[in-house]
Amino acid sequence: MIRSKGGALATLLLLLPPLALYVGVYLLPMLAFGGASVDNGVLGQRFPRLAAWAASAAPVDDAAAVALLADLGVLRPEERAEAARMLNQDQPGFRSLIMTTGNAAGTIGPGLAALRSFDARWAEDRFWFSLRQNLEPVTWRHFRKALGLGLSPDGGITRVEGGDIYLRIMLRTLVIGFEVAALTVLIGYPLAYAVVNAGPRLRGLVLGAVLLGFWTSILVRTTAWVVLLQTNGLINGLLLRLGLVDAPLPLIFNRFGTVVAITHVLLPFAILPIVNVMRQIPAAQRDASRSLGAGPIETFLRVYLPQTLRGVAVGGGTVFILALGFYVTPALVGGPGDQMLAYYIADFMQKQLNWGMASALGIMLLAAVAAVLALWFVPRLFAAPSARRP
Amino acid sequence: MALSVGFGLAFLIVPLAIVMPLAFNGGSYLSYPLEGLSLRWFGAVLHNPPWLAAIANSFRVALGATALALVVGGLAAIGTMASRRLTAIVLWALFVSPLAVPSIVMAVALYFAFARLGLNGTYLSLVIAHALLGAPLVFVSVLNSLRGLPPELEQAAASLGASRWMRFRTVILPLTLPGFLTGAIFAFVMSFDEVVIALFLVSPETQTLPIALFAALRDRLEPTLVVVALSLTLLSGLLIFALARLRRSAAPLGKDQ
C-alpha cells in the first residue's frame, strides 16, 4: 500500500475503530480482570479507623475494638455482607462473626472485654490477625492461596499444610497438556507424512479427515466421545458383545477419557504445522541420501526427521497452549479429579462469587501460556539475522 | 508406517462416523443396532421451540459478529499494512493476540466488563465478544491478501489520478475480496461453534446452539443431540467446500499457493 504525505493521518483514522474496540472490550477488560486478583474492594476502603490501628502495630486492645465497631456501624448492610464474605475467604467462620457483630454494633459497649463477651470468637487471635493483614487497598491473599502460602503471625510467608491444592491443579493441567501434545504429535506425524508424501487418493482422504476435524465444533466431537465412552456406550457394548470383558470398563469421567477426547479435538492443530514444514523439504534430498548409500531408515532419521522438528515444535506447542485452557471437554468427559485450571476459574466466578481467586488463577494460566510463547519467540529474537523471517 | 497412518485416520474419523448415524435411529437409545431408520429425531428438533430458538440465536449472533469482525479486522489489516515497519509489528501483535488468550480468561474478563456496563445476557454482548475473536481471523486473512497484492497496481491507479478512497474501492477491495470472504467464513464458524465465552454471557433468552447442546449433554443423552451435532458438522462441511472454492478462485492472484 502506498504511503503518502497525508497518509499518516488517514492511516490513524483507519486504525481508530479497531483500536477503540480492542482497547474497550479487550485491553481494559483484561487489565480490570488482572486487577481483581489484588483488589481488596470494600475491605481496602471502608475500614479507615481499623486500618489506622492495623498500621500502628499496636496490640489487640480496647482501641482496636472501638475502631472495629465504629467502622462496622457505618457500613451499609450490603457492604458489610461483602466484607464478611471476603474475610471468610481468609478465615473460615469470619462471615457469621462479622454479620452478627455488625448487626449489633450499636449495642455493644466500648472496649475489648465487651466485644468478647458479645462473641467469644473475638478472643481468637486468628481473626484479629486476618483483619490486620487484609485492610490494605492491595491484597496478595488470592495469590498466596493459589500458591499454597500463608502468613505467619510474625508477618513472614509460610507454607500452608495441605494448601497446595491449586498448585496440584496447575501441575495436573500442565501434565494433561503435555500428554495431549505428545499424543497429537505421535499420532499426527505419520498422518502429516501421508498428506505430503502419499498417493493422491490417500492424501485426499487424510487431508479431508484433518480439515473436517479442524472445522467441526469442539462440542460436536466431545459429544461423539461421550456417546462412545459411556458406561452403556458403544465401545463398552462392543467389548461386552465380543466377550472381551465381563463388566463395562470405566472409560468416561476419568483421565483416560479426558486425554483421549482432548487429543482428538486438538489433533488437526498438530498436523497442519507439520504438513507445512514437510512440504518445504525437496524430494531430491531423499534421493541424494539414498544414492549416497544411506538406507531408508537412516535417510529418514538423519535427513528427513531433523528438518521436520520445527513443525513438530510448532504443532506440539500450539496443542499444549490450547490444551492448557480446556474447559468444555474435561467438564463433559472428565471426573472430579480430571478438571483443569479453567474449571476452577469458572467455579470461583460462577458458584463461589470469588472474583479475586478467579482472577489469580487466570493469571497463573496466562503465565503458563506466556512462558510457552516466550520459549518460541525469544530464541528467534536472538537468532542470527539471516535466520530471521523476512 | 501404513499401520500408524491407518490408526491415526481411524482415530480421526471413526468416532464421528460411528456416532452420526445414530441421528437416524428409530429407537430412543444411542446404541447399535439401530431400531429401524427414522427421521423422527429430526422432527423432534424442528418441533422443539428451545432448539429452534437456539438455532435462530446462533445465526443472529454469528452474522452480527461476522459483520463487526469484518469491519474491525479489515480496517486493522489495511491500517497495519500502511504503517511503518516497527509500528506494523506492534499492531500485528496486538491484533492477533486475542487468539492466544485462553477462552476461559477472556470469558471471565468480558463477564466483568459487561457486568459493569449492564450488558450481560444481551445479544450485543455476545456479538461484541465473538467479533473480538473473529477480528484476528479476518485480520490475518486480509493482511495475507494485501501482502500478495503487487504494489504496482495501486501505483498505477495513483498515477492515473485516483484518490485514496477510489484506489481502495476500485483496485484493492476487488482484488482482496477472497481474503475478506475467507476471513468472514472463519469468523462465522468461530462464533457459531464458540462455547466457553457464550456460557458466561448468555441469558436463557439469548442462549446459542452450542450452549443448548452443552446443557443437554449434561442433562441426558438423546438422539436429538446427535441430530444437532450432525447438522453442525454438515454446516462445517459446507463451509469447507465454500472455502476450497474460494481458494481456487483466488489462486491466479495469490503469488504463492
TrEMBL record, chain A:
* Membrane topology, from the record: Multi-pass membrane protein
Listed under GO cellular component are: plasma membrane
**Where in or outside the cell is it found?**
Cell membrane
> Which keywords are on file for this protein?
Cell membrane, Membrane, Transmembrane, Transmembrane helix, Transport
Signal peptide range in chain numbering:
none
Pfam families under this entry? BPD_transp_1 (PF00528)
User: Where are its TM segments located?
Assistant: 174-196, 202-220, 256-277, 312-333, 353-378
Q: What is its main location?
A: membrane
Q: State the InterPro entries in the record.
A: MetI-like, MetI-like_sf
Q: Which PROSITE patterns match?
A: ABC_TM1 (PS50928)
Q: Which domain of life is it from?
A: Bacteria
Species: Zavarzinia aquatilis
- CDD domains (UniProt xref): TM_PBP2
Q: Does the keyword Cell inner membrane apply?
A: no
Protein family per UniProt: Belongs to the binding-protein-dependent transport system permease family. CysTW subfamily.
Q: Can you cite a GO biological process for this protein?
A: transmembrane transport
- Mind telling me what this protein is named? ABC transmembrane type-1 domain-containing protein
Q: Residue ranges of the ABC transmembrane type-1 domain?
A: 170-376
